[in-house]
Amino acid sequence: MNNSGVTNELQVDYEVLHQLSVPTLLEMVEITGFLSSQLGEYSDTPEFIQSSLEYAFNKSAGSGGFAILAKHKGKLIGASVVNTTAMRGYIPSNTLVYIAVHEDFRNKGIGTRILKKTQRLAKGGLALHVEPNNPARKLFEKTGFNYRYLEMRYENE
């Protein structure tokens, strides 16, 4: 699914990728590299980003999701990746794993448009993890996300 939008006089094309419109290997590499570089200090390893994309486009039961790409003149300037959890109620049905806008295109409404499109496409609840000092928190709060829990993790080695 493609659609366009003018954001602050900037022509941006949005594309939704999912299990029926799987990106090519070259597109996967581009999306992974984009997210890795644009998430900066909040980024995961490229391997983790790649795994999230593979999960989103996996056609097996219990996995899936989608990605939204924002492009300006054919150049990737924004992206979100959602993984489904296959759970309902007690844990949100979807996790917004990644969302980023190219540093040269921030504060132009692109992140808000990507996030609102993400919210509309997600079937069921949508959760995310955000660092306390991440400036994107304001965007999440502005678009209706609220705090439910403080996440704690234990890593078994």
Would you write up a description of this structure?
- This protein is 28% helix and 28% strand.
- By secondary structure, it is an alpha+beta fold.
- The chain has one domain (2-142): Gcn5-related N-acetyltransferase (GNAT) (Aminopeptidase), CATH 3.40.630.
- The longest helix has 14 residues, at 25-38.
- The model has no long low-confidence stretch (mean pLDDT 90).
CATH topology annotation: Aminopeptidase
Overall spatial form: globular
Question: How large, in whole angstroms, is the Cα Rg?
Answer: 15 Å
Helix content: 25-40%
Class by SSE composition: alpha+beta
Summed over residues and divided by their number, the pLDDT gives a mean of 90
Please provide the count of β strands.
6
Beta-strand residue percentage = 25-35%
CATH superfamily: Gcn5-related N-acetyltransferase (GNAT)
Q: How many domains?
A: 1
Q: What's the SSE pattern?
A: EEHHEEEHEH
InterPro entries: Acyl_CoA_acyltransferase, GNAT_dom, YpeA/RimI_acetyltransf
Domain N-acetyltransferase: 15-157
Pfam families: Acetyltransf_1
Keywords: Acyltransferase, Transferase
